Amino acid sequence: MNISPSKENILKKIRKALSESTPLPFASSEGNQSVFKPQQDDLEVLFAEAFSLLQGKFVFCMNHQELVVQLDNLIQQRNLKKIVCEESRLRATLVEAAAGVPALKEFSPGEPGTDLKTCDASITGCEYLIARTGTIVLSSAQEKGRTTSVYAPIHICIASVDQLVYDVRDGLKMIREKYGNALPSLISFASGPSRTADIEKTLVVGVHGPREVYLFLVDK
């Protein structure tokens, strides 16, 4: 079969192109760089702004003593009677810092707390906080896993400034470094109260989870 010179020329160009790697025309768009703006403000400020936009309630505390005072105020203002705190280390920290605070007398070491199905609120820690999106990162490695933060009508999360990271990628990297090959079976990202707009495009809060989320960020 005779091949015309023009066709042979085209085939030569194709063979050459296949044998040599061609640089990507838009290398920066292939996921190598973040499409979001780099960090400009402090992580605390970024998180507070993003979290508040998502209807979350942000409280900054200078230390654990101020945390206890602010938490006590919230409990009294909202008349919270039944509070679940299943994380033993967090509960012990609250007990130590809350000596003599009546509203926090339920938090005693060794006591499991109130039944989650009938509680007014739950208190948990978290893995990390994503500043750019105002997201709380939770995992099944925490005591009682994700259950405590989902089923209570009010979720109170207590975190420290050293748990702040800028983006989701940073949070996932920190989790991999923390757990290595023993990654938690569940890693979830909670951005404010549960909400949906599936019903006639009307936003409804508190459908599949807590209707209110408080984040107490402790400086040290």
How many DSSP helices?
Answer: 6
* Biggest sheet statistics: 5 strands, parallel
Morphology: elongated
Radius of gyration: 25 Å
User: Beta fraction of the residues?
Assistant: 15-25%
> Uncertain segments of ≥5 residues (pLDDT<50)?
108-113, 201-207
**Helix and strand string, N-terminal first?**
HHEHEHEEEHEEHEEEE
> N- to C-terminal separation?
81 Å
Strand order of the largest sheet: 1-11-6-3-2
Percentage of residues assigned to helices: 25-40%
Count of beta strands: 11
Q: Helix/strand/pairing class, anyone?
A: alpha/beta
Mean pLDDT comes to 78
Could you characterize the architecture of this molecule?
The protein is an alpha/beta fold. Helices cover 30% and strands 20% of the residues. It has six helices and eleven strands. The strands form three sheets. A five-stranded parallel sheet has the order 1-11-6-3-2, sandwiched between helices. A four-stranded mixed sheet has the order 7-4-5-8. Strand 9 and strand 10 (204-205) form a beta hairpin. It is elongated and about 95 Å long. The N and C termini lie far apart (81 Å).
